[in-house]
Amino acid sequence: MTGELVSGRGLNQETSLQRACDTRWGSHFGSLLKLVLIYDSVIDVLMILENDGLVEQRGQAYALLNSLQSFEFAFILHLMKKIMGITNALSEALQRKDQDFANVMGLVKVSKQQLQATREYGWDFLLDEVSFDKIKLIRLAEHYPCEFSKLDILALDT
């Protein structure tokens, strides 16, 4: 077994997700990047399972859809992508057998500076990246009423 989950066969099969049990930091970063890339496909598959799967699959798909489509999930996914992107070079350097101490210390310094800058100035960018445009969603609800329940529209309009 290669440690990767097969995502399917045929056209448009660009990537697969790694198993979560692979504990190397870099592999987690790669998994996050892959999830961002195939997020729409994951949602599509879960929606199919929710509608057409076995009873147990339907419940699991419903729960996963609720989690994956939440603001909290989107925020944490993009936050972790940002943090792991900043620290990835340091992580890779620390995992090498032939570590260059001066290089590692330089990477620690750069990582600290970038994390501090993100802490001080990066929140607006991150919130913009994961926030929903309420006005555009209300317009979509007007144009595609079958896709939005009355409760959804009421929640948007508050």
Topology:
Elements: E1 4-5, E2 17-18, H1 25-52, H2 55-68, H3 71-95, H4 101-121, H5 123-130, H6 134-143, H7 150-156
Antiparallel strand pairs: 1-2
Helix pairs in contact: 1-2, 1-3, 3-4, 3-5
Q: Which stretches are poorly predicted, pLDDT < 50 over at least 5 residues? A: none
Straight-line N-to-C gap: 50 Å
How large is the share of residues in beta strands? Answer: under 5%
Total strand segments: 2
Q: In this structure, how is the largest beta sheet organized?
A: 2 strands, antiparallel
Helix content: over 70%
Domain unit count: 2
Number of helices in the DSSP assignment? 7
Shape: flat
Structural class: mainly alpha
Q: H/E element string?
A: EEHHHHHHH
Radius of gyration: 20 Å
The strands making up the biggest β-sheet line up spatially as: 1-2
Summed over residues and divided by their number, the pLDDT gives a mean of 80
Protein name: Zinc finger MYM-type protein 1-like
Organism: Coffea arabica (Arabian coffee)
In short, what is this structure?
The chain folds into two domains: 20-69, no CATH class; 71-157, no CATH class.
Quickly list its features.
158 residues, mainly alpha, two-stranded antiparallel ribbon, 7 helices, 72% helix, Zinc finger MYM-type protein 1-like, AtLOH3-like
How would you describe this protein?
There is one protein chain. With 158 residues, this protein is mainly alpha-helical. The protein folds into two domains: 20-69, no CATH class; 71-157, no CATH class. It has seven helices and two strands. The protein has helices at residues 25-52, 55-68, 71-95, 101-121, 123-130, 134-143, 150-156; strands at 4-5, 17-18. A two-stranded antiparallel sheet has the order 1-2. Helix 3 packs antiparallel against helix 4 and helix 3 crosses helix 5 (123-130). The chain is flat. The mean pLDDT is 80.
